[in-house]
Request: fold
Amino acid sequence: MCGIVGYCGNRDAAGILVEGLKRLEYRGYDSSGISVGFENNLTLIKKKGKINNLKAAVPSDMPGNYGIGHTRWATHGEVNDINAHPHMDASGKLAIVHNGIIENYMSIRNKLIKEGVEFTSETDSEVIVHLISKYYEGDLEKALKTALKHLKGTYGIVAVHANEPCRLVGARNGSPLVLGIGDGEMFLASDVTAMIAYTKQVVYMEDGDIVVVDKDGFRTTDLRDNELDKEISTVGWDIGEIEKDGYPTFMEKEIFEQPESVLRGMKGRLDFEQGTAKLGGLNMSSRELRMVNRVIILAAGTSSYAAMVCAYLLEKVARIPASAELSSEIRYKNPIVEPGTLYFVVSQSGETADTLYAMRELKRKGATVLGICNVVGSTIPRESDGGVYIHSGPEIAVASTKAFTSQLTAMYLFTLIMARMRDMSTQQGQMIVESLAKVPEQIATVLEQNMNIKTIADKYAHCHSFFFLGRGLTYPIALEGALKLKEISYIHAEGYTAGELKHGPIALINEETPSVFLVPDDGLREKIISNMKEVKARKGPIIAVAVEGDTEVADIADDTIFIPKANELMYPFLMVVALQMYAHHTAVKLDRNVDQPRNLAKSVTVE
Ligand code: AGP
Reply:
């Protein structure tokens, strides 16, 4: 969603801000803008559409060594130049950028209008600049703090005032804000990707923090002016990880990184001898883990399908009652928190509003909530009681791929720990550990199918509707396959459990509606073959994802993607990679913007 970048230092700010915004593009946006300060003047440039429109409007020799920039993902008001941020006050001396939503903006707006303020945009954010302006008496920090006392809602804000050159003032409440400490220069941004080219030294702001930054230092306080001592962290990855590295899209790069990212998620965590795993960050003793009698996993989107796989697995392998819940639903269900229930929240970004607010609601009711996240320092891991970083590395494409397989990795390790604490034998545990260790190599084998998958994807790219069908552990993979296809190719796709097809959806099967069947060689194979025959009898084209050597399935299907033979618990990893490649090739064939699909955002920070 919206992205913020702020800079103060000795270099030309305009170039740094535009480059920072370019790095934030992946979050999803529809307009962008910058405000650059040169001595006691601010210049404002805002453009609808891609950053390149903004870049073209910014003079290459634009003077100014401080400023703020923003990518907007519209919530209040249409997509146009005026609604884009930054927003300025009437004096043209004060500018702000804002992420989040101001819930009481209407009443503030009406009051300010009565006081004679003229609004130019339809946004909720514009009230912030006029409120700060109203209270400004030569001290931006003080004016911002006074203004914040009137605001209800969520925000990450950065403000600049031309009377206080080369100073940024930021505030955070519910929308991420990170400070970057450079050599004689400072950055404020909604995530570290905007500043990683210049510094790896960062401070993650917490809700309620106010930060005042000039080129040589920073100071953090709370709203009541109490000084705060903040920890400086070092970012553990390099700029190379957010470059395409020769791949045409980030999504393809991230799909192909999975042998390494899954391996990284297991590294040092597998115990071959004891047939179990080690997860340091759970912050729970063996005794406490043994007392867990139910696990509930919450997440949104792709992460919710990882959660579903893991709920199946926990029941099947560890024999613990488990379920997956959508974050956006559980929060408003007035959830019953019972002793003995352990909650997990799964989130790549660690910032998804639905998941974060659901987690807070559960914690309010006394639940223990562990996080499974990718982005280090993000809000969910900081607010959870413990958890696991999945270490899949920065995921830039909006469509999540490598984070999904890394989320599975973390949850498989947790399941193994729980199973071995209960009634799983050492031998069974060792067998699972060995099977898990083979997964990275088996994913690499699936990736070798790339050209075959492209041929099949090209063949069906003209179709308007698809079914994705699985059962048991591969049912969530069918849901994920359908989500991947619809979000990047804009083709309608439905994920179903294959057993449900005959209860209604089969009415939609015809020659133009392909069904992608996931056929592992487990106990459900025969049942799935029957479901395939039901589709075949109605002339529906079939694409099967089947285990190497399964000629019976290949004979029924029109096209087959083979995956290597593996332990039956590991097929979710292998099948999902095939479906990610399928969706990617379809989107490329249809000339879609694979990395930044329409209407979508990487980090969904509104409910
Ligand atoms: C994935 O391809 C999606 N774009 C989306 O469903 C995503 O998984 C969802 O918004 C949850 O994000 P999170 O993992 O960062 O919480």
